[in-house]
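REVIEWER CHECKLIST
Item 1: Sequence provided? yes
Item 2: Single chain? yes
Item 3: Sequence as submitted:
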Amino acid sequence: MHAGHTLAIAMWAMTALSLGLVGLRLYTRIRIVRFVGIEDHMYAWTGIFMLVFAACIQVAVHFGLGRSFWTLSPDESSRAIFWTYVANSFAISGNALAKLCMGFFLLRVVQLKWQKLALWFLIVVTVGTSVTLVVMLWNQTTPRKASWDVLRTPGEWNIQIQPMSVGLGGWSSACDFFFAIFPWLFIMSLKMPRREKFLLASGMSLGVM
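Item 4: Structure as written out by the authors:
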């Protein structure tokens, strides 16, 4: 078993866990709370994107992802890289959707103007950077195919996406910490038992993990 198989196993395990949590959330919203908001639809799509991402990684592993590039045929390397691009497109989009879910949920419960502005700022920046990175991913070279068919298609590299990728990763982590801290700012001011406030705020902060 090579590194690609290990990657695929890890991705399917994470996907199963994610889909289980999405299913529990939707069950709670539909059967218990009996209210479904826009963020719940987004959570469902996030689960679907995660499933597609894992499937694309599996296809890429089939064509050689995880093995040494130089042991692959030109066709295998081209297909492996291409399906990694497809997978990353869904990963980037799914990550943005996950942030939007939390953002839209909090927009429904916060009251202060600065809190709403802060959330809208996070939403706009997250969507903008994610869409930009996906577009950049597929337009790194001229012609486009040269970026994944590197051994057979000559081309010119126009964009270096690594700085943008690292930047989006840092921004995503910052958003996770923000969403972990932000609920404490308004939940502690609610008129409810202290223990319930602590449990609610702690539950909403689990995303930082």
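Item 5: Key structural point noted by reviewer: The chain has a mean pLDDT of 90.
Item 6: Recommendation: ____
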